[in-house]
Amino acid sequence: MRHRLLLLLSCLFCAATLLAQKNISVSGTVMDENATPLADVTISVKAKKITTKTDANGRFKLEAAPNNVLVVTMVGYKENEVTVDNGENLVITLTRDLKAMEEVVVIGYGTVKKSSLTGSVSKVRNDNLDQIPVSRADIALQGKLAGVNIITTDAQAGAAPTIQIRGATSISATTNPLIVVDGYPVPTDLSTVDMNDIESIEVLKDAASAAIYGSRGGNGVILITTKMGRSGKTKINFNLYTGIKNTYRRLDLYNLDEWIDFVQKDTKGAPLSTQILTAEKFNANTYPQDIIFRQGSINNFSANVAGGTNTVKYFLSGGVSLDKGVVIKNNYQRYNLRANFSIKASPKFEIGIDISPTYSVTSDLPLKIHDAIRTIAQWMPLYANDTVVKYTGKPVGSYVHQRDFDPARNPMYAAFGFPSLSASSDNNGYTQIMGTDSKLYEFRTIANTFLKYDFTKSLSFKTSLGFFTSQRERELYRASWARVDILNPQTTAAQARANTFGQNTKTGIMDLLSENLLIYKKHFTVHDIDAIAGFTAQTTKGKRSDIQANNFATDEIKTLNAGTIIAASTTEETNNLVSALFRVNYGYKDKYLLSVASRWDGSSRFGPDNRWGWFPSASAAWRISQESFLQNSQWINELKLRASYGATGNNNIGNYRYFANVTPVNAVLGDNPSPGFVSSLYSNNNLGWERTFSFNGGIDASLWENRLSITLDGYNATTDKLLLYLPIPYVTGVDGYYINLGKVKNTGFELEVTGKIVDNKNFKWSTTVVGSHNRNKLIDFGGNTELISNGDPKRNNFFLARVGQPLVQFYGYVVDSAVSLSGSNYWPIGVAAERTFAKDINDDGVIDSKDRTTLGSPYPDFTWGMTQTFRYKDFDASFILQGSRGAEVYNVDPNYYETQFNSTGVNAYLKYSPALQATTRFKTESSYNVQDASFIALRSVNIGYNLPKKILNRLHVSNLRFYATANNLWYKFAGNYSSLNPEGINEFETDPLKKGYQRGAAPVTRTIAFGLNLGF
Amino acid sequence: MKKIIFALPFFCMALFSCKKFLDKKPESGLVEEDYFRNTTEVETGVFGIYDGLQAVLQEEYKLTEMRSDMVTPANREGEWGSLEDFNETSTNDFVRLFWQLSYNTIGRSNLVIKYLNNVTDTTKKKYFEGEAKLIRAHMYFNLVRLWGDVPLIKEVVPFDENDKLIRKSKTEVYNLIVSDLQTAINDLPVSWSSSEAGRVTQGAAKTLLAKVYLALGQYAQAKPLLDAVASSSSYQLLSNYADVFSLTNEMNKEIIYAVRYKAGANGEGQAFTYDFSSRGTVKGIKPNTDFMSLYVTADSVRKKTSVTGSGSNVFVGKFQDPTAADRDAGNDWIVTRLADAILLQGETNANLYTGTWGAVMSDADSALIIGPINRIRARAGAGLTRKKKSDYADLASYMNDLMRERKIELAFENDRWYDLLRWGNAVAIMNAHFPAINRATSTMKPYQVLMPIPQREIDVSHGTITQNPGY
C-alpha cells in the first residue's frame, strides 16, 4: 500500500518535471538475461557528467531529463543505451558480451585479457570441480588441462599426486612444476588449498609465459587464484557431500582350493606335496585382500561468505574434509580456513591480506600393499581356531603367524611331524599394520599482505610481504607385538620390548617473500601498453628434528618418554633467491600483440662462479580476426596466431650441492661414540642453472558465434646444462657429484577444443576435449652414450638413459619361455619360478649382459581428457574422462606374490642342465615385469538438480542444488597390467632417471557421493 | 616520478646486500675448503675412517663366511642365495656394496693423508698416518684377495682422470699394501688408552702384514712379525674361550684388531647380530652340517660358544646378543686376535721347516710347528693334537690339522674364505662340500675364486674398469 502511494506520488512528480523539461528522478533495476539483478553496473547520462552505480539489488537512482539517454555498462556485458522517458522503474537488461572474449587470464605478476594472450596458458575455472569427491584440489584437476599430466601415484587418502607439464626436462633435479597461490610461490605442493576456495587455475606452459618465474619456471607454473568477494549483496554458500569409497579392483590370487586345482592340472594328477596336504588341515579360506581393504568414506563440508562494498571486498571460508581410505588405518582429515580481504583505503591506496591456515592429520599404512597381502597366508586363519590350537599350541583367538607352522621354531608343531608351511614372513601383515601407528600432522599457512599505490591513472606501485610456513610432525609407534610374537615360546619379553620402536620427526619450513612491482598501464589511441618491473627476494629455511626410541616399557604409552632414546638429531638449511624482473606487453589496435619479459635470478644454491641466471623471453600474436577482411565474418569470431621463444630454469636440486660437503659421522672408540667428519670430496663452483629454451607456436580460433573454440599449440623445448648427479666409479671414494651436463629435448603438441553443441534455453550441451602428445629425447649426456641405473638392487631391474632415445627406458632381458615348477613341492600358494629363460637377442649362443635391450618407457605417447556438460531445465550433468596411452610401468608386484623368496621359486631352475641354467635370468631383470600402464578413467560424474526459482524465493535462498557425484566410477586397465593401480609409480619419485617403478601401490578407488550446494 | 626515484634506493640497497644474501654455507655441516685445518680437525677425519670400517664389516661376511663352506642362510632368497650357491652375477648388490664401502673407506683414508701436513702435533701426525695407511691397506688386502687386480687409488684423484681409475696388477696393489703396513708399524703406538680402545695399533699392523706375506707365500718375512705379536706382552690368550667374545669383555687382551659398535647410540649399532639370528632378514645364518660334524666331544667348549641351538635349528652363536634391538647390536667384529696369529705362526714355521717331515723333530722345531696348535687346543680344553714329534708324515698332513684347527677356532670370523684362497684349495673344498650337504645342484667354477667387478663400475667408467673372466 505504501509502495503504491509512493509510486503515485513519484508519478505526479515526474509528470510535473517532464512538463518543465527539467531533470526528473530516474530509478530502475539492471538485470542479466536470467533476470538476476546486477550490482556495480555503471549508469551514466550520455553527454553529461552524471554517473551512478547499481546497488546490491541492481537498483539505481539518478536525475536526468526525459529525453536523455542512459548508457549502461559493465565489464563482460554488452553496452546498452536506454532513453529516460518517464524514468519510472526502468528495467534494463544487459546481455553477456561473448564476442569480446573478455575472459581474463592470470599470468605471473598480473592478468591479461584472454584475447591479448601471446603465450601458451591453460585455464580452468572451478565449475563444480569442488564437487568431485576427492580430498585434494590437485586430484580434482585430472583430465582438465592439456599437457598437464596429473597422476595419482599414491592413491592413499590425502597423498599428493605427481604433476608433470610437457614432459621431463631434468635428470637429477625434480620435475614438479612451481605452484603459485595468489601470487605466492609455494616451496611445496598444493595441499594448502581447498578446492572450494579456488576460483580458477592457470598453467603457464611455454617458456615465454613461465620465464617471468625464471629459474623455477622450467617445469611449468601452476597459478592458483582463490575466490574474492564482489561489491554487492553478501553471498553465503555451503557445499557439502558425503560418500563411500571402495577399491576398484582386487588382485586375482589363488586360494588353497584353486591352487590345488592348478597343481593337479600342472602335474597331471601327481600326489600333492605334504605342504599342501598339511595346509588343508587349516584351510580357513582367508582372503588377505578382505582383511586389508575396507569400505572407505569421504565427507566434505565447506562454507564461505563473500561480499563487499565499493571499497572493501572480502571472502571468508572454512572447510572440513574427512577421508577414510579403502586400506585399513589410512585416514586423512583436513581443516582449513581462509580470509581474503582487500580494502580501497583511498582512491589511490589499496591494501589487502590473504591468510589461509590449514591443519591436516594423515594416518598412513605402515606397510606397502604387496607386503600386507603376501604376508597373510591364504590357508591360515588370522586368529587361532581349534585346529590351530591343536597343532601349534597358540591360545584361542590369538594372532596366528606363519612361523607357528615351522617345526624349527615351534616345537609343538614339530612334534606332529608336519613340514614347514612358513614361506613368506615371520609375522602376518595384519599385526604389522595394526601394531604400527604412523601419523602425520601438518599445519600450513600462507599469509600474504599487499599495498598498492596509484601514482597516476596508469602507474602504480605494489609491494607485498608474506610468509609461508609448514610444520609437519610425523609420529610413529610400533608396538611390541607388531613384528614379534610374544606368545611364541622363543620370544622373550625383553625381545618384544626391544622390538618396540617410536619415532618423532618434525620438519618445518619457514619461507619469507618480499615482492615489489611497478605497474604501468596505458591506452593511447591505437596503442596498449601493459608493463611491470620488479624486484623480489625470498628466503626459505628448513628445519628437521628426528628422535627415535625403543625398549618401551609398555605399549600403552606411545610418546618417547616411555622408551629409551636411541637416536636424536636436528638439522637445518636455508636457501635464498633474489630476482629482478620486467615484462612489457604491447598491443597495436588490439591486433598485433607483443610481449617481452625477462627475469634475473640469483640463488644461494649455486656456485659463486655461476650464481646468476638470466631468463629472457619474447612472444608475439596476430589477431587475424581483427583485420578488416575478417572483421565482419559471419563465422569467424576470433582467430589468432601466436609464437613465443624464451628461457626458463630449474634449481630443484637441494641446498649446498656445489660444495665438497663435510658431514658428521660417528665411530665407536673407547666405550663411546667419537664424532668424526667425512667429505663428499668434490666441489663444483661452476654449478649453475639448468636452462630450458622453448619455442611455442599456437592458434586460437573461435567460430560460429563462439560455438566452437579451438586452441592448438606446438612446442619444442630444449633443456641444456642439466643439473646432474653424475655417477662416477666408486673407486674414487664417492658415488658421484653435481654438475651441469647434458641436454634433453621435449617436443609435442596440445589441443583444446570446446564445442557448445546444443545451446537452447532449456537444453545446453557442451564438450571440451584436451589432448597432448609429448616426445622426450636425450640429446647429450655429457659425452656419455648411456647410463644404466639399477632401481632396486635387491631385485635387480634396470633403467637406461641412452642418447637419442627417451630419457628413461626400462632395460633388461626379454622373456623367452617360462621356467616350470615341475619337480618342486608347489609351495607356497601361488608360487612361480623366480627366473625365466631369456632370449638370446644377439644370437651369439650365450646369454650375457649384451642380450639386454630396451623394454619400454614410462612416458605416455598421448594423454587426453574430455569434459561433457549437459543442462536440461533444472537438471544438469557432467562427466570427465581422462586417458593415458602408450606408457609402460615397471611393476615388481608379481615377484612378491609369486616367489615369496621361497626355495621352490628360487631353485626351480636348478633342475635344468648347467648350460640351460646359464640362459636363465631373474624375472625382475626381464620384460616379465614391464607392463602397459595405459588407462581410461571416468574421473568425475556429476548429476544435479537445481530447485526452481519459485521455490527458492519462497525458501529465501538464492540457489539450492542437490547432486550425485562419483570419482573413478569406471576405470579401464590395460590388458597385461596385473596390479591395482597403473598410475601407482610409487618409488624413486624424486629421481627422474628411475621413473616408472611400482611396488605395492595403493589401489585405484571408486567413490560415490551425494551432496548439496546452498547459497543465500 | 619523484616517487619512483624515492623507491630506487631501496632497490639498490637490496641488490647491494645480494652477495651476502646469496652466500649461504651449510648450517648443519661444513665444507671441505673450511675444514681439516689443524690437528683436532684432521683427527675427526681419522674417526671418519673408522666409521667407514663399521659399514664394511657389516657386509664382509656375506662375501666370505657365507660364500665359504661354513654357513648357509636359512632362507636362500635373492642375493643371499646367489652368493651362497655361486650363482652371483656382476649386478649382485652385496658384491657392489662391499666394493663401494671398501673404496669409500679408502677414500676417507686418502682424505686424511691429504691433510696430514695441517697436523702440527708431530706424534699425532704419525699416528694419523699410521691409522689411515693401516686401514687403507686392510681394505686393499680384502679387495686384492677377492677381486685380483683392482684400481689402486692412493690419493684423492680428480674424478675425470679415468686413466687413474683402471685396474692395476696384484703386484702393484700388494706393493702399496706392504709399504702402507710398514709405515703403520713404524708410526702406530703399541696400545691406546682405554678411552680410545679400538684405534688400530702396531700389533694390528704387524699381524696384517704377516697375513699379507703369507698370502704372497713369503713365510720368512711373516715370521718375525708373528713372533713379535705372539710374544708381545700386549696380548694374551684368555683362559676362557667364551670370554673372548663376551659383550662385557670387549677389546680384551686377545683382541689385536676389532671394529667397534655400540647399541642404542644414535646408529652406532650393527646389523650382523640380527641377521645371524633366526629373527634376521633371511631367518638366520646356519652353520653347515658338514661343519657341525667336525665338532667332536673335545671341541665342546668352542662349540658351545660358536653355535647356538640344536638339531636342525642351529645358528651362529658368535657375536650374539639376544636382547639387542633389530639391527642395533653392540657386539664388535673381531678382525684378528691372538689365536689367529698363533695359528699363523705354526703355519709359517711349518712352511719354513727345513728338516725332514716324518722324522723326529727337535723339541725346538716341535714347539715352533706343533706348539701353536697345541696352545690353541689347550686353551679350549680340547687336548693336544700330537704329542710325538714324528707324527706328521709330510707338510700336507700337518696342514690338514692346521686347517681343521683354524676352521673350528676362528669359525664365523671371516677367516675361512681367505684361508681357502691362500691355501689355493677353494674350488676343491667347495666342490667336496656341496655333495656333503646334499646340495648337488651347486658347484664352484674355477673362475669364481674371484668376484665379479660390479657392473655399475664398468658402466660408469665407460669400460675402463674391466670385468673378471667368466662373468
Short description:
Chain A is mainly beta and 1016 residues long.
What's the helix and strand layout?
The complex is a heterodimer of chains A (1016) and B (471).
Chain A: H1 2-19, E1 24-31, E2 42-45, E3 51-53, E4 59-64, E5 69-73, E6 80-83, E7 90-93, E8 104-107, E9 110-113, E10 121-125, H2 137-140, E11 148-151, E12 162-165, E13 178-181, E14 184-186, E15 198-204, H3 207-210, E16 221-226, E17 232-247, H4 256-266, H5 274-282, H6 288-292, E18 296-308, E19 312-324, E20 331-346, E21 349-363, H7 369-374, H8 386-392, H9 411-415, H10 429-434, E22 436-454, E23 459-478, H11 480-483, H12 493-498, E24 501-524, E25 527-550, E26 564-588, E27 592-603, E28 612-623, H13 628-631, E29 636-650, E30 661-669, E31 672-679, E32 690-703, E33 708-720, E34 723-727, E35 736-740, E36 743-759, E37 763-780, E38 786-790, E39 798-802, E40 809-812, E41 815-818, E42 835-838, E43 853-856, E44 862-872, E45 875-885, E46 888-891, H14 893-898, H15 903-907, H16 914-917, E47 920-922, E48 930-932, E49 935-946, H17 949-955, E50 959-967, E51 971-973, E52 997-998, E53 1005-1015
Parallel strand pairs in A: 1-7, 13-16, 46-52
Antiparallel strand pairs in A: 1-4, 2-3, 2-5, 5-6, 8-9, 10-15, 11-12, 13-14, 15-16, 17-18, 17-53, 18-19, 19-20, 20-21, 21-22, 22-23, 23-24, 24-25, 25-26, 26-27, 27-28, 28-29, 29-32, 30-31, 32-33, 33-36, 34-35, 36-37, 37-44, 38-39, 39-40, 40-43, 41-42, 42-47, 44-45, 45-49, 46-48, 49-50, 49-51, 50-53
Chain B: H1 2-16, H2 18-22, E1 30-31, H3 39-63, E2 71-73, H4 78-84, H5 93-114, H6 122-147, E3 150-151, E4 167-168, H7 170-187, H8 202-215, H9 219-231, H10 241-245, E5 255-259, H11 272-276, E6 285-287, H12 289-292, H13 300-306, E7 307-308, E8 315-316, E9 333-337, H14 338-352, H15 363-379, H16 395-409, H17 416-423, H18 426-436, H19 455-460
Antiparallel strand pairs in B: 2-6, 3-4, 5-9, 7-8
